[in-house]
Amino acid sequence: MATIGRVRAVAEAVAAARLPGVEEIVASPGRVTVLLAHGACGDMAGLEKTLTVIVTQTASTTDDAGTTYEIPVIYDGPDLEDVCTTHRIDRRRLIALHTEPDYVVEAIGFLPGFGYLAGLPESLATPRRATPRARVPAGAVGIGGRQTGVYPFASPGGWNLIGRSPVSLFDATRPQPALLAVGDRVRFMAADLSTDDWWQPRSQTAVEQVPSATITVVQPGLFTTVQDLGRRGHRAAGVPLSGAADSMSLRLANLLVGNAEDAAAIECTLLGPTLRFDRDATVALVGAAFPGLPANRPVQVPSGKEVVLGHATLGCRGVLAVAGGIDVPPVLGSRSTLVTAGFGGYAGRPLRAGDRLAVGEAQGRSGLIKALPPRLAALKRPCSLRVIPGEQAALAGDAVWSQSFRAGSRSDRIGLRLHGEPISCVGHDACMKSVAVFPGTVQLPPDGQPIVLLADAQTIGGYPVIGQVIESDLPLAAQLRPGEEVRLQEVTIEEARDAMRECDAALVMLGAAIRGAAS
Question: Does residue 74 share a domain with residue 46?
Answer without folding.
Answer: no
